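TA notes, week 10

Several of you asked for a full example with nothing omitted. So below is the full record: C-alpha cells for the whole chain, then the designed sequence directly under it. When grading your own attempts, check the secondary structure regions first.
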C-alpha cells in the first residue's frame, strides 16, 4: 500500500539462490542476532531447513557448537557448518548485529 517496503521490494527470496551459490563453489555464512525481532533467528533456521544445496535439503544435523569469548569464557553464540553453509547465532544482538557487536570483544 502506498509503495510500502513489503510491496515495492522486487528482491528474490534468498532461499531460492543461496543453494545455487553454494553448489557453484561459494561458501556462504548466514548469521542471526538472537534478539532480532525483524527477522527472528527461527525464521532464518526455517529458511535453511527448506533450502536445497549439495544434493540435500537443510542441515543433516541440528547440533550447534557453542562459541565462547572473552576472559571469562562467556557463551556468545553458536554455529553450525555443513556442505559450504555456515550458520551463526549471536547472543545479545538484534537485527543490526554489526552495530550491536562491533568487535569480537563485545560478543
Amino acid at each position: 500500500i502506498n509503495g510500502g517496503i513489503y510491496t515495492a521490494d522486487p528482491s528474490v527470496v534468498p532461499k531460492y539462490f543461496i543453494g545455487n551459490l553454494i553448489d557453484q563453489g561459494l561458501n556462504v555464512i548466514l548469521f542471526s542476532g538472537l534478539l532480532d525481532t525483524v527477522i527472528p533467528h527461527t525464521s532464518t533456521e526455517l529458511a535453511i531447513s527448506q533450502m536445497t544445496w549439495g544434493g540435500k535439503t537443510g542441515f543433516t544435523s541440528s547440533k550447534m557448537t557453542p562459541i565462547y569469548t572473552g576472559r571469562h569464557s562467556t557463551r556468545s553464540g553458536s554455529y553450525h557448518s555443513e556442505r559450504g553453509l555456515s550458520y551463526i547465532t549471536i547472543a545479545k544482538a538484534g537485527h543490526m548485529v554489526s552495530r550491536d557487536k562491533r568487535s569480537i570483544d563485545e560478543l
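The chain has a mean pLDDT of 87. Use that as a sanity check on your answer.
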